[in-house]
Amino acid sequence: MPVKVIIPTPLRPYAGRRESVEFEASTVRDALDRLTTEYGELRRHLFTEDGRLRSFVNVYVNDEDIRYLQKENTPLQEGDQITIVPSIAGGSDGAAASAAVAVPTLSKEEILRYSRHLIMPEVGLEGQLKLKQARVLLIGTGGLGAPLGLYLAAAGVGRIGLVDFDTVDFTNLQRQVMFSTADVGRPKLAAARERLQALNPEIQLDTFETRLTSENALEILRPYDVVVDGTDNFPTRYLVNDACVLLGKPNVYGSIFRFEGQVSVFGLPDGPCYRCLYPEPPPPGLVPSCAEGGVLGVLPGIIGAIQAMETIKLLLGRGKLLVGRLLLFDALTMRFRELRLRKNPECPVCGPHPTVTRLIDYEEFCGIRGEEAPAPTATVPEIEPRELKARLERGDDLFILDVREPHEYQICNLNGYLLPLGELPRRIHELDSSREIVAHCRSGKRSAEAVEFLRQAGFRKVWNLKGGILAWSDQVDPSVPKY
Ligand SMILES: [Zn+2]
């Protein structure tokens, strides 16, 4: 049924200078959709990035404000008249003029660069301009940050912020495809900026070479529309979640471990947050990090690319987001599963009666201080790699106990006796408590546990090789590979 939409003066420059238009429409939303489909530039004046009617735009049907009818679902009848009333301070001509200056456009180069987006009706010029105006913050430029940074930059997200304080390590290259071999030793942000700017010189990059903390998080996150969580540790993950909820920002979450990944979109007004899913972090040491547990090289590429896809959909206001849904991916069986997530009414941060109303100490909350849980090495007797070498050369009778796993022993070893930490309790009888024992692992952490266990079992002459096989390689024998 035909209805008439009255265009207010300030918005007429974006509606072909017409005073009114007529459409067939059954609801207000329908009419506004038709209007903004025909006059694409109007859309950003009327709707927010996520498709909600801007708070300073009032819409009337005949003489009634739709907020007191059925809002955007208000049904329309033949001959109804819709009036759009934006609250614009100052003179309407001036407002229109300044707004006209602010309307972004695409250059000839950008039109060519994004042509495969522009020819899709789901993106089009309107969508590409949304991407150009969008501001996205990536927390972490590691495994997940690589596909995120590359794809968001390539797709034309106008402003991308990067937060990281690490340098590129040789062991990163197996999965962090934003970096090249020549970048090893450089700050990740410098290398990422160079790579992303080379990929797309049209975009703006902001870099924050700092650890995200409770003190700086709100300030860093505030200017961005969407936050993407590419972190690898629990304190930062809870910090990002809480800061996003407090600021009302969407949080595109992804996590990876060995060959499994998770993705969801948190922090939208009607959707759950990370704490609705996991109110409490696991105790320290229960879930190993990628550095301890390993990660299959392609996995962060898959999970990060899904996060990038959700970010683009969020910015475009298209499709069905992973809101209220937790996507689980298992690379070994090549299966995706989906769990329904509900907004927890008891959630301490996004629930109706939150107990977390400002950022807290997240390392304390996660039960750790500093980056990793303190190793128990301080309490057990240790031997320095050089001292061990000297004693072996003197011909001292030392029993070298290697408490790593068999697949690690294959990478490198010190000709020790292989007895994995997990098997120590039931195989302890294989060890001779009258001999001096030096236990070692990769870094000295597991062997410290082994030494502690043996001491409690009554072994008196047992030492931990300080720094493990990594320190041995650094200080004694560089031909032993590090991993
Ligand atoms: Zn919540």
Description:
The chain is an alpha/beta fold. The protein has 3 domains: 2-102, Ubiquitin-like (UB roll); 134-365, 3-Layer(aba) Sandwich (Rossmann fold), CATH 3.40.50.720; 376-475, Oxidized Rhodanese, domain 1 (3-Layer(aba) Sandwich), CATH 3.40.250. The protein has helices at 28-38, 43-46, 92-102, 108-113, 115-118, 124-133, 145-155, 188-199, 217-221, 234-247, 274-277, 290-293, 299-316, 362-365, 385-393, 406-411, 424-427, 445-456, 468-475; strands at 2-6, 20-24, 57-61, 64-65, 81-86, 135-139, 159-163, 204-208, 226-229, 251-257, 260-266, 325-330, 335-340, 382-383, 398-402, 417-418, 436-440, 462-465. The strands form 3 sheets. It has an 8-stranded mixed β-sheet, sandwiched between helices. Strands 2-1-5-3-4 form a 5-stranded mixed β-sheet, covered by helices on one side. β9, α10 and β10 form a beta-alpha-beta unit. α7 (145-155) runs parallel beside α8 (188-199) and α7 packs parallel to α13. It is elongated. It binds zinc ion. Zinc ion (ZN) is lined by residues 272-273, 275-276, 344, 347, 349-350.
Q: What brief labels describe this structure?
A:
18 strands; 483 residues; Ubiquitin-like (UB roll); single chain; binds zinc ion; alpha/beta; 5-stranded mixed beta sheet; 8-stranded mixed beta sheet; Oxidized Rhodanese, domain 1; Rossmann fold
